[in-house]
Amino acid sequence: MTHKRSAGLLLFRRTGEDADPGIEVLLGHMGGPLWSGRDAGGWAIPKGEYGSDETPRDAARREFTEEIGLPPPEGAYVPLGEVRLTSGKLVIIWAVEADLDPALMVPGTFSMEWPPHSGTVREFPELDRVAWFDPETAREKLIPSQMPFLERLLEMQKG
To answer: Which of 78, 89, 82 is nearest to 25 (CA)?
Structure first.
C-alpha cells in the first residue's frame, strides 16, 4: 500500500539579543469553512503532498510558494525529520531561518463543494493568513500532529 507523502518548510527568525536568543516561527491558518472558526489547533506548517517524480525538498519549496504565494527562502535547510500520521501519511519538514512579512502573502486556493451536498463548488484559500508566533503561543496554535517538528526545532536552538 502506497501512503501519501507531504513536505514543508518551517520558517523561524531570531527575536532576542545574544543573551536571550528567542525565536518565532511562521505558521499558516488553514483555510476553508472547516477551519474558519478554529484558532487553537487550526494552524499548520506550510506543506503539501508530492509524488515520486519530485524530491521532498523540492516539494517543500514548491508547496511553500503554492500556499503562501512567495518564493521559498534561501539559506540553510535544516532537516527536522519525519512524522508518520495516524492516516499513514509521511510528513517531512525542514527549518529555514528567514524573515517574511505576512502582509505580502498571496494564498493559493483549492475548490470544494460547499455547503456539503449542495452541488455548489466554491474556491477557498489553502491558508487564509500567516503569522509569527513565539514558541509558547505556537504550541497552542499548531495542529497536534505537527508538534514534533516545532519541538525538534526548539531543541536544536538550545544546542
So the answer is: 78
Residue 159's pLDDT band (cuts 50, 70, 90) = low
Count other C-beta atoms under 10 Å from residue 62's C-beta: 15
CA distances 5 to 81, 94, 134, Å, are: 13, 14, 28
Distance CA 84, CA 81 (A): 10
Q: How far is CA 111 from CA 31, 42, 54, 72, in A?
A: 11, 19, 24, 24
pTM, two decimals, is 0.91
| Bridge partners of residue 96, in order along the sequence | 11, 77
